[in-house]
Amino acid sequence: MIADMSNADNRVAAFARVGTINMAANMSGPLLAGVLADLLGILSAYLMLVVVFAIMTAFVSRIREPPRERKTGLENTVSPR
């Protein structure tokens, strides 16, 4: 979907942003959950997870897939002369 929603000029930057955000979340999520669990109890880590999932669900539900052209796969063929 990233490739569909970005043009060819900024496609590499879009994939890089997604990869960076993914890695940052993978590193900071367990750390934040561990700190919350240590300070406020294990339930707080799970409650924070529910809040994050609710926020992400709201964001993802607003994404609409861009319209696509129907391709037959024959666009690049050479016609006989």
Descriptive overview:
The chain has 81 residues and is mainly α. The chain has one domain. The protein is 67% helix and 0% strand. It is built from three helices and no strands. Helix 2 runs antiparallel to helix 3. The longest helix has 30 residues, at 11-40. The two termini are 38 Å apart. The relative contact order is 0.09.
What integer value in Å does the Rg equal? 21 Å
Indicate the overall shape.
Answer: elongated
What is the count of distinct domains? 1
Low-confidence stretches: none
Which tags fit this structure?
81 residues; mainly alpha; 0% strand; elongated
A few lines on this structure:
With 81 residues, the protein is mostly helical. Helix content is 67%, strand content 0%.
